[in-house]
Every structure is written in C-alpha cells, then in structure tokens.
Amino acid sequence: MTITFQAPSSDKAELEGDGAFTPRFDSDGLVTAVVTDIRDGELLMVAHMNAEALALTIETGVAHYYSRSRAKLWKKGETSGNLQTVHEVRTDCDQDAVWLKVSMSGHDAACHTGRRSCFYRAVKKSDGGAVLEIQDQQRHFDPEHVYSGHDETGKR
Amino acid sequence: MTITFQAPSSDKAELEGDGAFTPRFDSDGLVTAVVTDIRDGELLMVAHMNAEALALTIETGVAHYYSRSRAKLWKKGETSGNLQTVHEVRTDCDQDAVWLKVSMSGHDAACHTGRRSCFYRAVKKSDGGAVLEIQDQQRHFDPEHVYSGHDETGKR
Q1: What rounded mean pLDDT belongs to chain B?
Q2: CATH number of the domain at B12-112, out of 3.10.20.810, 3.90.1170.30, 1.10.730.10, 1.10.260.40?
Q3: Model pTM?
Q4: Contacts of residue A131 in chain B, CB cutoff 8 Å?
C-alpha cells in the first residue's frame, strides 16, 4: 500500500473543495462505499472500506472492501470470481462516502445470493408495518456451489 | 409514527427472503440510505435513518433522515425547499441499507453546497496520494442565502 491519506481538514470550505482527498473515516475507521454498474447506473451494493481497502482500490483499480462480519480486508469476488473493475471513484461533500462506478466480471452478479444487485427487494407499506416484495428472482450463480468450503458467504 | 419494525431474524434465509421488513439498525440505531434520482438514476446523496425517519419516509412518501451532526430528525429540504418525493424504497440482502428513488422539488439540488449531487468530485491517483477533481461546478442555489439563519447547513 503506497497511497496514504492525510487527516481531514476542520475547515469546511477546504473539505468541500478540490485538493487532497482526505477521507473522513468513522470511529471504526470506515467510510461507506456505494457501488453502481457503469453500464446503466444500477445500484449494485453498499459496503464499507478502511484505509487499506480504499488505497488498494484506488491503486489497483479493483474493488476492495472491509468485511465487518469477518473483520478483514475483502477483495470482492476473490471466491466467486465476481471481481469489480473500478472506472471512477467519487466522494461526497464531507468525504465520508465514496461512489464506485464498476464493471463486473464473472457471473455479472454483486450479491452473495447470486442476484445482480443486493437491492432486489422493494419495501411496501402494509397494515401498520412494512413488507418486502422480491423484484428480481434471477440467480446468476448458485451460492451453495460457489461459496462451498469458503467463508465469503456474506457480503460484509 | 404508526409503522413499527420487528427485530431482524437471526435466520439468514428469512432475512434475505420476502416477508416483513426488519431493518438491521447499527449500534447507533441507524441504517444507511442511498438516494438516487428517479429520472436518470444519478446518485444524489448518502445519509442515515433511524427508525423514526425510516417510518416517516415510508408513511409519508417524503424523505426523512437522521442528522448525526445535529442529532435529530431531519426532513430533507425543510429549509432549502429541496424536498424529496420517494417513488420507491428498496433494501439490500442483509437489510442494513435502503435505497430511495426520489424526485426533487425546489432547486433540483440535493447537496447543501447547491449542487445537484453531493458526489461532485472524482478521486484521482497522484504521487503516492489521491486528489479531488471537481466534476460539477453548477450551483442550483446560493447556500449562503438559502441557509441564512438556519442550522441545516451540513447534510448530516
């Protein structure tokens, strides 16, 4: 890892301008990563990155995250083959989130359930509560088969 | 607030299926909200929601968030007029993030800097570090004027 990040400025104008990228990691050392498909802008997934994952992503052009459930660096697609090539990285006004525009290899699926996007369910109002309706049933791969013997079974 | 959320299931298949929406709030009681424009899918902002903000959003069809910096419920656009009408809410496989597809009123700008999107800067590699390049200079409103005398000057 050669890229290092400086501490964010306490000056708001500086934080919102151009100049150095100074990500604002939270108390767990993470920023939020929003991942969309460069083809059509579809939202594929939301994940988290620590400084190492962010530096590796910028350096290599391949998406790396930090798995909170496994508490370690996570090269997306290492097990499933669904690597993400990063075409553009953006950050937001207060630099605590990044947006990756990616193209997928492998099965063209970002979700560990085998679907293209993790956001395959709509939320609907229902009698004082809310229910989920599945919008995408297409599995691009069989999770049982792909993750058999591996621990990359959850997206985090 | 009439919508209440049940505790998430510890059963993975249940969490990933249809049935009740059982958001997985983090230790601060928040889920991540990704907001895109229904017109063209542009990523507008990333914010956070507590149970109250999420319930109000689902119930009223107008986006509500939780401001971490101000530690209170935040009806987006209350000061600036840039309300967000929610056309669809989705959630991801482990139900700790939601995706809102919205249309904006007011100045057609989600960012407190006056830009359409908070993600107006690209991150580029540069000599062992990373720098920011502004991609969108168009201000849809003058923040100084719009937020004068109000405290909604930061997006969180």
Answers
A1: 93
A2: 3.10.20.810
A3: 0.94
A4: 18-21
